[in-house]
Amino acid sequence: MGINKVISINKEVLGLNRRNQEYVRPYNSSSSKAIADNKILTKRILRKELIQTPEVYKLIRTKKQLEFLDWNSLPKSFVIKPNKGTGGNGIIVFYGKEKGKLSWIRPNGTTMSQRDIILHIENILEGRFSMGSKNDIAIIEERIKTDSLLKQYSYKGVPDIRVICFNQVPIMAMLRLPTKLSNGTANLHSGAICTGIDIETGITTYSMHMNGAVFQSDTYELIDSTLDLTQNLQLSGIQIPYWNEMLEIALKCQRASGLGYIGVDIAIDAEKGPVVFEINARPGLGIQVANQAGLRWRLEKVKDIEIKGLKHGIRVAKNLFGGEIEENIEAISGRKVVNIIEKIYIFDKNTNITKISNFKDIKKEQVKAFMDTGVLTSRIDSKLANRIGFINTHKEFTKLNIPKRFETFKEAQDYIDRNEVEACKIDGIKRLAKIVEEGVIKVRPVFDIPIKISDKIRMTEFVSTENVDSIYPITIGRSDLSGYLIDTSNTF
Amino acid sequence: MFETSKLTEWLLSHGISQMVLELLIAMCIVATIVSIARYLVGSKTYGIFAPILLAIAYSYTGLKYGLAITLVVILTSLLSYSVLKKIRMHYITRIATNYTILSITLILFFVLIDQFGLGLENMSNIPPLAFISIATLSDFFIKQFVKKSLPSSLMSLFGTVVVAIVGWFVISREIISDYALNNLWIVPLLTAINILLGLFKGLRFKDYLRFRFTSREDGNK
């Protein structure tokens, strides 16, 4: 690992020390943490915000209650979990009941008798799985029936989506897929797959899997497809259902719990849609590996923004952190994605692009450009061209007394062939071009103008136009769009 | 080796034995090593108490004997707990049973060494308290095994033993313990180091390994 890499990781990544010092302690009060650490309390608080959580069948607080539990009143499939458990410990899922017996079937096919379950619940009550080993409450609740789309990517258990929010902005998200190794749980440390999600589109990006070797735990390897299914499937490009709704739910959880820095775990039930599993006051940092992006930079970016509501928070997140999927497309296809209306920078006439070392100090103008595959050469409104230094060029061009209209393209081309050399003597004119403008065939000058589009500075040929009806001062044509994919869903 | 400081002399003449003073300083040193290991390196240990206890116990048993006892304690705990897991019984009784089995194994271990030596002939000279201190590691090991998983507990065990070995190495150097005994300003210095470590927000060494994939320059957006 080179020094540059170390510096870059240090700048971008959020470590445990900083998470605790800068985010968990100052932004998560003790009372808010107490809500997150208590599943019953969490359910109660979230219900007030009309957020769905798994339905509770029974709460067992004492051994006496356990003794009098009516086992026949329980549905065939259910989940037992400790109220104050951590890291998924002590959670047992039952898929069904053995016919004619008081024993229930687990995801791996084994069964647990009533006596075994009682013993497990007694262990929960004694605090075996709870924070600080204090006495606890056992929750018997509804088993989520996974949505059919995500079901095909996971081994038995329930996949869930974790969204980290800070200052009412969704910061980062990942999908956790249970594997055979994780024994059907979505716990990354047990071997579940984590997949990054583009916050803008809700489409999965990179996938990681924690190294199996004990002493390499906490280190990950990049994977492309699911690991131990009968038919392994490509993990990138999955559109998470209910994406916008999920971002809203995550923000509502943050508002309800009062946690400034929160991790919200949401599962998708086949019938109910998004259901919040739990909220976390100290969400793990593995999400950064899944997204191959650091949390630190993102958190600092939204720290001082005043968020006016849920929709505003989501919009901020999408604008600031979206676009992962576009970069992914670039990585796969070698092409960059540009919006149909993209903001570009246009530089002054005599800017030497080879000497642009400090972008900030260079005179430039930001304009909206329309990506138009219907025209070949890019076009610039003559008024804009005048502003960036072509005013004299236009004056000289007018003196050429070129006819205002041509009847045919051939006639225009003949004119160009005869007069181009003369026209090119004017400073700034590269060549002449024939164009159709407002239904009229015209001959116009072509300039070389440096622009910055999608992080690339390049010299571009522009035909100067006089179309007063055009909304956009710049049109980028086919000859400058090779190497780009146009996203028609986004405009700025 | 070092001239006795006035403060040390005063303390020794006012009811504090040299052994207690040495132990207290050793505790401060090992506690700081645990802090460094946790917040700068990122190693997992069974809290702070286990590595301190283990490092001090090793300083009494010697590393060879200490590690041998640790190995017996862990293997016995692992084996007995794996067997006991199959029996339906309450959690605390299972841990208690584990301790009784551990005692029997340790007695057998003593007998075995007496009979065959195994390069550990001086085992009988080890102070019993140091011996018991290492045996309590079983509790930490089993608790994490039960609450989390075997790999997780083994990871913490590895971290605890490594930190304890480093701690043992530092506190058993005569030059260090002598120097510390006669330069008690080291104790407030260690306090200050711990406070600074407590305020440290940077990445731990392990974070660099863990997040080496996180390399896209999205900070430039």
TrEMBL record, chain A:
State whether keyword DNA-binding applies: no
| Cross-referenced InterPro entries | ATP-grasp (IPR011761), Peptidase_aspartic_dom_sf (IPR021109), RimK-rel_E_lig_ATP-grasp (IPR039523)
Quote the cellular component terms of the Gene Ontology held in the record. cytoplasm
Leader sequence segment: none
A biological process (GO) annotation for this entry? SOS response
PANTHER family attached to this UniProt entry: BETA-CITRYLGLUTAMATE SYNTHASE B-RELATED (PTHR21621:SF0), RIBOSOMAL PROTEIN S6 MODIFICATION PROTEIN (PTHR21621)
Q: Name all ATP-grasp domain ranges.
A: 43-306
Know the name of this protein?
Alpha-L-glutamate ligase-related protein
From TrEMBL, chain B:
Q: What is this protein called?
A: 7 transmembrane helices usually fused to an inactive transglutaminase domain-containing protein
| Membrane-spanning segments | 20-40, 45-61, 67-84, 96-113, 125-142, 154-171, 183-203
One matching Pfam family is 7TM_transglut
Q: Which organism is it from?
A: candidate division WS6 bacterium GW2011_GWC1_33_20
Q: Does the keyword Transmembrane apply?
A: yes
Q: Where is the 7 transmembrane helices usually fused to an inactive transglutaminase domain?
A: 17-212
Annotated keywords: Membrane, Transmembrane, Transmembrane helix
InterPro entries documented for this protein: 7TM_transglut
